[in-house]
Amino acid sequence: MRKNELPVASESVEQICLFRWAAYEEGKYPELALMHHIPNGGKRNITTAKRLKLEGVKSGVPDISLPVARNGFHGLYIELKKKKGNGTTKNQDCWLKSLNAQGYYAIVCKGWEEASKEILDYLGEGEMI
């Protein structure tokens, strides 16, 4: 990090900001109340990880789901990344491709601001693809 640069927010902080934004916008867009996080990531002990896998947790599933049909799509999935740094894994790329093939709008967003713009576009407030 350079002397005058701010640190890059973690994915967790970006996601918290996105859900705070969504809560604020629910008055205008009540559908945002359906948006939720899919907790597939994170560090876990081996026992918990094995149990969650048996319960159906799968590697690569996008972080966020908005189960609202719009613009010919069944719903929106977002793989949220921090603004600078890490990219998607092969599993994440496979999930995004498969979800798109099944009629969902599945995308990668860098930072909560990009994600909020994509959500508004999806809900019909901006330019859709």
Automatic annotation (TrEMBL):
Gene3D superfamilies on file: 3.40.1350.10
Iron keyword on record: no
Residue ranges of coiled coil: none
Any GO molecular function: nuclease activity
Top-rank lineage group of the source organism: Bacteria
Keyword check for Kinase: no
Keyword set, alphabetical order: Hydrolase, Nuclease
InterPro entries: tRNA_endonuc-like_dom_sf (IPR011856), VRR_NUC (IPR014883)
A Pfam family it matches: VRR_NUC
Co-factor(s): Mg(2+)
Annotated VRR-NUC domain residues: 35-111
Name assigned to this protein: VRR-NUC domain protein
Annotated organism of origin: Clostridium coskatii
